[in-house]
Amino acid sequence: MAEPITRKNLERFDVPDSRYEMVMMHFEIAAGINTGLHTHPGFDSAYLLEGDLTVLERGQPDKLIRVGESWQVLPGVVHEVKAGNKPVKVLAVYVVEKGKPLATPWTPDAAR
């Protein structure tokens, strides 16, 4: 059985004169799969290559994303992504603090 979420690191480099790095990744998410609530220690920007998905950001209306559309999530915002009825392919770019995990799972206990 194939993995429900696959990630391929395409590029990573330090942002000059800063404490940040840029990470570019390609994601594939199986139909109907949810990434789970998480946060990033920096900016998350993504572009949908195939399929459709919904970005679920805590405290905000759900955002339906279709092929050719992009979206952003601000640092530390709790969110998740849910694939629609078809598998999705996403190109994601992160500008995050060096030395921190790219993503951190979020649970109600994490908010304390």
Characterise this structure:
The protein is mainly beta and 112 residues long. It has a single domain (5-99), classed as Jelly Rolls. Helix content is 0%, strand content 55%. The protein has no helices and 10 strands. The protein has a 5-stranded antiparallel sheet with strand order 1-2-9-4-7, with no helix packed on it. Strands 6-5-8 form a 3-stranded antiparallel sheet, with no helix packed on it. A hairpin with a 5-residue loop joins strand 1 and strand 2 (20-29). The termini are far apart.
Helix content: under 10%
Task: Report the biggest beta sheet as strand number plus sense, adding barrel if it closes.
Answer: 5 strands, antiparallel
Large-scale geometry: globular
Flag low-confidence runs.
none
Q: What string gives the helices and strands in order?
A: EEEEEEEEEE
DSSP helix count?
0
Give the domain tally.
1
Q: Write out the CATH superfamily name.
A: Jelly Rolls
What average pLDDT do the residues reach?
Answer: 95
Structural class: mainly beta
Indicate the proportion of strand residues: over 45%
- CATH domain class: Mainly Beta
CATH topology (level 3) name: Jelly Rolls
Radius of gyration of CA atoms, rounded to a whole number: 14 Å
| Spatial strand arrangement across the major sheet | 1-2-9-4-7
Task: Offer a quick outline of the entry.
With about 110 residues, this protein is an all-beta fold.
Write the layout of secondary structure elements.
Elements: E1 5-14, E2 20-29, E3 38-39, E4 42-50, E5 52-57, E6 63-66, E7 70-73, E8 79-83, E9 88-97, E10 104-105
Antiparallel strand pairs: 1-2, 2-9, 3-10, 4-7, 4-9, 5-6, 5-8
